Amino acid sequence: MEKILILLLVALSVAYAAPGPRGIIINLENGELCMNSAQCKSNCCQHSSALGLARCTSMASENSECSAKTLYGIYYKCPCERGLTCEGDKTIVGSITNTNFGICHDAGRSKQ
Question: Which residues are the signal sequence here (predicted)?
Fold first, then answer.
């Protein structure tokens, strides 16, 4: 029951926070509230705690903390920008518990 109330509250927050007809559900700018990464232009919906509101944010840059994958569509750490790889925990347990953090590295430089 609590999860349904939290989901409803987040959905209402997202709808209320949208500045106009554009970006209510998809193509959200960085800083706008989101419920899934697919809604964001940056493809990263991030929150800092399980009960915190999630917001669209930029992908992780080189040498920044990152998440390799998420099963839920919301990250604690965003995945790497294009051309970078997230080197770290890639286990299924890490994906389920959302603790699969690593560091973004340039794949081309690490091979040289």
Answer: 1-17
